[in-house]
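Model it.
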Amino acid sequence: MPRVKYSSSDVALMARMMRAEAVGEGKQGMLYVGSVIVNRAVADCLDFTDVRTIRDVIFQVQGGNYSFEAVQKGSLFYKGARSVEKRLARKNLNYWRQHPAKYALWYFNPYAPCPSTWYGQPLTGRYKNHCYYEPEAGSCPSVY
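Modeled.
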């Protein structure tokens, strides 16, 4: 049973975002980004109460900007998804999630050491350039 309902166009969209956000971090880095995307689709809390589909997550606007910078600025996002990224996206959609992104709803590249919290949410770990953050304990049971 998939973690979230999806179509082939969702797979391609998610694959494009995973590549655009983390291609330099290899397959593992792209899987971590994919975990955050799926976690946001299943989270019914905080900034994610009105996003239920992969498309909703990818094109969510917060504070007047898209949540994922690659939607606005990423030329890689607007190129077709490759088969390797589609396989990784399906893996995330169906079952895959691991630390540090297992329960993460946010990540970013600080170009420095990871802050211990980000907008009040605790750091779960770092993978290459990205720091991952999950909701404070008890604040988002749907993601756990």
